[in-house]
Amino acid sequence: MAADGNTEDYPYEIDEQLTGFDSSVSNVKAMLEKLISMPRNELQQKLDPLEQAKLDLMSAYTLNSLFWMYLVTRGVNPREHGIKQELERIRTYMNKVKEITDKKKAARLDKGAAARFVRNALYEPDEKDSRKKVASKKAADPTSDAPRSKLPRHR
Of 28, 38, 55, 90, which sits most exposed with the smallest number of CB within 10 A? Predict the structure, then answer.
């Protein structure tokens, strides 16, 4: 298209945009040819149900987006066409699949591990050791528990 160097048919200002568009269309065509060349049943057998749903949604969205672009090239306003509602419907399902995927990736809370973590985080070895020492001293000295007399001791 624009790679021919023939800029007589269109304004020079849009040459770069047309070149980019042409390369993008070529990339899309190559990807679609790869996708179409694979047997669909064989491809879906390799995927789990969530991946199958993603593939189906991606295919539907891609085809509808290409149709949107086709309408634009034909001068039809796609916002007034039914394709807009179809793309919104597919986007809704894509968001649902994304939520499911995010839920699967979310971290699960291991209550036992969390309890151990909190218990060990609050553990203060010096304080417990000093309590044990005080408790053992009190157990060894029976007079320490007795209240002290207010009277002075005689020597």
Answer: 38
Hey, what are 143's tokens? 């007079």
User: Of 60, 26, 2, 92, whose CA–CA distance to 68 is shortest?
Assistant: 60
C-alpha dihedral sign at 3, 8, 9, 14: positive
Low-confidence spans in the chain with pLDDT less than 50: 1-3, 7, 144
Q: Which residues contact 86 (CB under 8 A, 6 or more apart)?
A: 64
Q: Is 20 helix (H, G, I), strand (E, B) or coil?
A: helix
Residue type, 4: D
Q: Are 84 and 92 in contact (CB under 8 A)?
A: no
pLDDT per position as a tens digit, 111-147: 888 888 888 877 666 655 556 666 666 665 555 455 5
User: Which amino acid is present at 46?
Assistant: K
The tokens of 24 are what? Answer: 């993008």
Give the CA distances from residue 49 to residues 31, 33, 53, in Å, rounded to whole numbers and listed in that order. Answer: 23, 24, 6
Contact status, residue 5 vs residue 15, Cβ threshold 8 Å: no
